[in-house]
């Protein structure tokens, strides 16, 4: 099965389906269990769902493979537990900051709290959005076999995703260790509730992997600067500005405040 055509779980990424995953047809709820195979289609027991022939269909309703969803995936459950542990450390670190040096700071939005949203394994590394009362960042954590404790605070690198290339800053914290962060919003004055912030964060994790969101420039700051220069030329007609990074990623759920940028 080709990953781009998968309509089921894991945001359509069929490569994340474990070899022992039990799958379920979303049309008629027929179950495919690798341990049992499929007598009707002469599929031997022990055949992972990903190894089924491309023309395999649901034995009950004839629905295509792409419409099966994950019912139970032992490998994914272990991965989810590991990611939960990593994000718990991340949240604990920033709650310490919230109740420490950020306490009573004017830029803190008291309607918000620290929360990790939508974390998944991306190329073996936990990737998701961290909400704090003073920022929203896309966060990348190291894989189990990686040690990022030596990251230099403030160093930057550009990472590629289907929707484009994004600038990440390196940092370290006592509990979570080394991590990489891409700024989406700061400050968080535009958000009136935690629910609203979570909705935007979830949208970011969806839009990040959509190639149609790719824009010509890798730097929304460059786009905005060029646009401002055009507007200063009285002889030139006004042209609609390109979207900023956070407009693209949030799916239009939030507009940038003047002078703010989503990624650099």
Your description of this structure?
The chain has 264 residues and is an alpha+beta fold. The chain folds into two domains: 70 residues, Rubrerythrin, domain 2, CATH 2.20.28.10; 186 residues, 2-Layer Sandwich (Yope Regulator, Chain: A). Helices cover 22% and strands 22% of the residues. It has a six-stranded antiparallel β-sheet with strand order 4-5-6-9-8-7, sandwiched between helices. A three-stranded antiparallel β-sheet has the order 2-1-3. β8 and β9 form a beta hairpin. The longest helix is centred in the N-terminal third of the chain and has 26 residues. The radius of gyration is 22 Å and the shape is elongated. The chain starts with 21 loop residues before the first strand and ends in a 15-residue tail after the last helix.
């Amino acid at each position: 099965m080709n990953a781009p055509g998968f309509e089921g779980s894991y945001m359509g990424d069929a490569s994340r389906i474990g070899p022992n995953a039990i799958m379920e047809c979303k049309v008629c709820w027929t179950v495919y269990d690798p341990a049992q195979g499929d007598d009707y289609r002469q599929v031997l027991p022990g055949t992972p769902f990903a190894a089924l022939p491309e023309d395999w269909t649901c034995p009950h309703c004839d629905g295509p493979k792409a419409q099966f969803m994950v019912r139970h995936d032992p490998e994914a459950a272990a991965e989810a537990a590991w990611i939960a542990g990593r994000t718990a450390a991340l949240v604990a670190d920033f709650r310490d900051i919230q109740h420490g040096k950020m306490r009573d700071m004017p830029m803190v939005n008291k309607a918000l709290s620290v929360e990790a949203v939508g974390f998944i394994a991306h190329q073996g590394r936990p990737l998701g959005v961290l909400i704090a009362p003073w920022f929203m960042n896309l966060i990348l954590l190291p894989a189990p076999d990686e040690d990022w404790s030596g990251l230099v605070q403030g160093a930057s690198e550009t990472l590629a995703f289907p929707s484009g290339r994004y600038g990440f800053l390196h940092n370290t914290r006592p509990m979570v260790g080394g991590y990489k962060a891409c700024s989406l919003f700061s400050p968080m004055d535009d958000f009136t509730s935690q629910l609203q912030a979570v909705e935007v964060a979830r949208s970011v994790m969806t839009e990040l992997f959509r190639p149609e969101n790719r824009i010509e420039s890798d730097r929304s700051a460059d786009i905005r600067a060029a646009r401002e220069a055009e507007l200063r030329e009285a002889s030139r007609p006004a042209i609609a500005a390109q979207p900023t990074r956070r407009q693209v990623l949030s799916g239009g759920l939030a507009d940038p405040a003047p002078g703010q940028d989503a990624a650099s």
